[in-house]
Write a structure and sequence with these properties.
The complex is a heterodimer of chains A (320) and B (325). Chain A has 320 residues and is α/β, with parallel strands linked by helices. Chain A has 11 helices and 12 strands. Chain A has a single domain, classed as 3-Layer(aba) Sandwich (Rossmann fold), CATH 3.40.50. With 325 residues, chain B is mainly alpha-helical. Chain B is 76% helix and 2% strand. A two-stranded antiparallel ribbon of chain B has the order 1-2. The chains are: A alpha/beta (320), B mainly alpha (325). Bound molecules: adenosine-5'-diphosphate, iron/sulfur cluster and magnesium ion (MG). The site of iron/sulfur cluster has 14 residues of chain A, from helix 11.
Chain lengths: 320, 325
């Protein structure tokens, strides 16, 4: 694969004592789809917001680097980040009901997005907006432009949001669980459309989700997050086919469709840890059947070819 | 839209009608004007003549019907004191009260909205904390006391501003206005700031609360994710959403300001409706009291209507409900 569009190195984003993201590294190549998975609260969204420079206060990036297109943007000025956001990097949020401003018409919200980065007339910006709506499969876009968000269904709103994200053909899009709030059929449609659109534009995609089925359909590579760290990463087929980290194995075991008939569903026991009080060693230890005294020490990163994991007792028996 | 307006107008008419009953009964309960209007040494015949002339000998319901019928023709009775139509007397004083109320609400908006925005955007700053503390004071100090302090300070001690009366006036549209002359404007400053204080604090706190509520929402974050400039995010995306409660309060408080300018007008001897009503209550000039109450109710009803219509302009979701679709 060609050079990375985005490289995150040892990113640390803390909310006071809460280490929401604590040493996350990954890279995304041009046109590549990376699935970022993990239970709720593992730091996926904070990772995404850190990359586009929109971490909510009191959160701050306390360490690491974000390298975009070969340039370290971690300490870029607000104006530099603004100029990148929406033009070269885009983000789609989880809840389409909340992403669009309820008191502004769709055309207002799209035209301003065009004009934020390009010195074009209102009419031209409007034409661009209309084409973008057409592209994501919204019928009679000219008419729909004049509507308010509440006049759209959830699926249609998420399409509008996707159209806005695609307006400037960004280098990469961070999609933060964009289909979680939608029903299954709509979810499948949007997934397929999104896949096609990013492939057409050679846009890289970071797809955040807790749904392994989605990742296996969509992604080239997968990174599994737990308590602010990536505990395992690699190609989708490798990681889902033979997980090395017990947490990944637990996630796979809790997907209903993968369980054969009559077999019990294996929920991971216990709860996600409080990121304000993490142990020195493996954060998964309290929930892990393989934990022993070694796991109380700081766990290094193990690398094997294109695969990485953080576990002192990986699951060899899953290896094929 | 039209159906919604017609419905609201009908409601407004019903409210006005109900108010005629309430006002009429209320005013008939506060004492007997005859005692005040007639000198104590007038004889029984003289007394009966006055009572009959005023229609005070009729049963209450007949008095009400007479009152209602006249009211429908814009006649709310003849002032006992001024010997002129009561409504006319009230309306003569309306411009003074109106210009006081309008300047007060303008001051409240111009002071309250920017300070509230500032405090909402920097909730932890020292300046914000000072603003919020002062606004609590402005909220809780009684208006008449603040008025007296203003007079003491700027009128008496420093001697910068006049602190009584309306000053010179000039004519516009056949009405005398103080704000058109330098002298009148100087007279307007202290009372309008006094009257504005409470609402400036109210609007300030409301704006700040609105900002605090809207800022963390996804659509603001998404507006930033689109790469919009911060001025647009705050000036359009945040502001348009917090304007709804602010408009409501401005509307409702405008009515209250007119109604409660009584205190400020008395403190500053401002010759408006408020001062008139206090004087009229002292002499039990019933038609004036009635006319005043009816005028205030009409005022509230009109303002509510305007607020509702402004709402629909600001919030597309309300518009849809109003249309019943
Ligand atoms: N605005 C915030 N204030 C304080 N802590 C936060 C905030 N946002 C996120 N966090 C912390 O970061 C952790 C990870 O959050 P998040 O990235 O949203 O998880 P995910 O997206 O994986 O579900 C949370 O458990 C919380 O402790
Ligand atoms: S390091 Fe230890 S506790 Fe952590 S996942 Fe591996 S075996 Fe389990
Ligand atoms: Mg999240």
């Amino acid at each position: 694969m060609n050079a990375a569009v985005l490289e995150v190195r040892d990113l640390r984003t803390h909310f006071g004592a809460a280490k929401a993201v604590d040493g996350v590294s990954f890279s995304v190549a041009r046109g590549e789809v990376l699935g970022l998975v993990g239970e709720s609260g593992s730091g996926k969204s904070v990772t995404g917001f850190s990359i586009i420079g929109l971490v909510d206060p009191p959160g701050t990036i306390v360490g690491g680097q974000i390298v975009f297109d070969g340039r370290d943007i971690t300490h870029s000025s607000r104006e530099e980040m603004r100029a990148l956001r929406g033009r070269r990097m885009a983000m789609i949020f989880q809840d389409p009901m909340m992403t669009l401003n309820p008191v502004l018409r769709i055309d207002t919200q799209m035209i301003e997005a065009v004009q934020a980065h390009e010195n074009v007339s209102r009419a031209d910006a409007r034409a661009r907006a209309r084409d973008a709506l057409g592209m994501v499969g919204i019928p009679s876009p000219d008419e729909r432009l004049r509507a308010y968000p509440h006049q759209f269904s959830g699926g249609m709103r998420q399409r509008v949001v996707i159209a806005i994200a695609l307006l400037h053909r960004p280098d990469f899009i961070i999609a933060d669980e964009p289909t979680t709030a939608l029903d299954v059929t709509i979810q499948a449609q949007i997934l397929a459309e999104m896949q096609e659109l990013v492939a057409q534009n050679n846009t890289s995609l970071i797809w955040i989700t807790h749904d392994l089925a989605v990742v296996s359909r969509l992604a080239d590579r997968i990174a599994v997050m737990y308590a602010g760290r990536i505990v395992e990463s690699g190609s989708v087929s490798d990681v889902l086919g033979s997980p090395w980290h017990p947490y990944t194995a637990g996630l796979i075991g809790s997907v209903p469709s993968r369980n054969r008939r009559g077999e019990r569903l294996h929920q991971i026991p216990g709860m996600t840890p409080n990121v304000a009080r993490l142990p020195t060693g493996c954060a998964f230890a309290p929930r892990c059947a393989r934990a022993d005294a070694m796991c109380a020490q700081a766990v290094p990163l193990f690398t094997a070819g294109m695969r990485e994991h953080r576990c002192v007792h990986p699951l060899p028996e899953f290896r094929k | 839209m039209t159906a919604a307006i017609v419905r609201r107008l009908f409601q407004a008419a019903m409210v006005m009608f109900a108010m005629t009953v309430i006002v009429f009964i209320a005013v008939n309960v506060i004492g007997d004007p005859v005692d005040i209007l007639i000198s104590p040494d007038a004889d029984q015949i003289e007394r009966a003549r006055v009572v009959q002339a005023l229609g005070l000998d009729l049963p209450l319901w007949q008095q009400y019907l007479r009152f209602l019928q006249a009211a429908l023709h814009g006649d709310l009775g003849q002032s006992y004191v001024y010997n002129e139509p009561a409504l006319g007397v009230i309306l003569q004083r309306l411009p003074a009260t109106l210009e006081l109320a309008v300047s007060a609400i303008l001051i409240a908006i111009v002071v309250g909205v920017p300070l509230g925005l500032y405090a909402g955007l920097r909730p932890d700053g020292i300046v914000s904390r000072i603003i919020m503390t002062v606004s609590i004071l402005g909220f809780s100090l009684p208006t008449f006391w603040v008025g007296l302090v203003l007079i003491m300070l700027f009128g008496v001690q420093l001697g910068w501003l006049p602190s009584g009366g309306r000053g010179q006036t000039a004519e516009l549209f056949g009405v005398q206005w103080a704000f058109l002359t330098k002298d009148g404007l100087a007279h307007l400053i202290l009372p309008s700031f006094n009257l504005a204080l409470f609402d400036a604090c109210l609007i300030l706190r409301l704006t700040r609360a609105g900002v605090a509520e809207v800022l963390p929402l996804d659509y603001i974050k998404f507006a930033r994710a689109k790469g919009l400039k911060e001025t647009r995010v705050i000036g359009i995306h945040v502001s348009k959403n917090i304007m709804i409660p602010v408009v409501t309060i401005v509307g409702l408080e405008f009515g209250s300001i007119v109604a409660f300018s009584v205190v400020t007008e008395s403190v500053f001897s401002w010759p408006g409706m408020g001062k008139l009503i206090i004087d009229s209550i002292n002499v039990l000039d019933r038609p004036i009291i009635t006319a005043y109450l009816m005028a205030i109710v009409a005022f509230f009803v009109i303002i509510n209507l305007v607020v509702d219509l402004t709402y629909t302009a600001l919030d597309p979701r309300v518009r849809l409900q109003g249309e019943g679709s």
